[in-house]
Amino acid sequence: MTTRRPLVAGNWKMNGLKSSAAELEKMIAGSRTLPGVDLMVCPPATLVARFAELAAGSPLAIGGQDCHAQPAGAFTGDISAEMLADAGATAVIVGHSERRHYHGETDAAVRAKAVAAARAGLLAIVCVGETRGEREAGRALAVVGAQVDGSVADHGDFVIAYEPIWAIGTGLTPTPGDVAEVHGHIRARLSARFGVAGQGLRILYGGSVKPANAEELLGVADVDGALVGGASLVAEEFLAIASVYR
Q: Domain spanning 7-245: which superfamily?
């Protein structure tokens, strides 16, 4: 049986200033008490280098929230995977639903970013998830499966983060049965594509994860950790979620 080491990653989104380093330092201290789980924080790009310096030598990893598919060029305002790596990041989120929705990113665009992450030696956190309308129409598995097929690169280090769009920042969460069904479907797609290696790939759950529901959600089959939004801004809450794996 494959043993997958859990990962709890925090997506700070467009939140955080230099003063947020105080909260990060609490997370760094807490990470040393949780040897059974990989911990990561993905702050805005302005904080990646500073946070990577603060976290150096600790169990807490630092990631980026997005990257351009190209390593360099005339792309004003964008940041490449190589730049993130140079700043000290070890991972990058690609294909978050907010990027897909507000910036019109397609599966092909997300896949190109996942390829870029692999090129730069970063772990790609590839996000997938359905809207409420798609779930109510009975299309959740088809939508998520197509996103997995179209967004994942053929090589490189990656994890999948399943985030039902209707549960992100809303306080709503799917039932454990719903989560188990989707994660099982993702596992089957990964195994069909990558063979035995697909059993070793981690699948995170995201969408209104908080200390009160973490134990229930993270205990579901084929859930190998969490991509945490708002709760990851507060060290006490973030570490409480990760403490499920104590």
A: Aldolase class I (3.20.20.70)
Q: Say if pTM beats, i.e. exceeds, 0.85.
A: yes
163 catalytic? Reply is yes
Each residue's pLDDT tens digit, 169-210: 888 889 999 999 999 999 999 999 999 999 999 999 999 999
Helix (H, G, I), strand (E, B) or coil at 212: helix
Q: Residue 191, CB half-sphere, CA atoms under 13 Å: how many? A: 11
Q: What's the CA gap between 33 and 243, in Å, rounded?
A: 9
Query: Is the Cβ–Cβ distance between 229 and 11 less than 8 Å?
Result: yes
Q: Which of 23, 82, 96, 130 is catalytic?
A: 96
Active site residue 101: no
Strand segments (E) across the chain: 7-11, 38-42, 60-64, 91-94, 123-128, 158-162, 203-206, 225-228
Domains of the chain by residue range: 7-245
- Residue of 105, 163, 185, 237 marked active site: 163
- In three-state secondary structure terms, 5 is coil
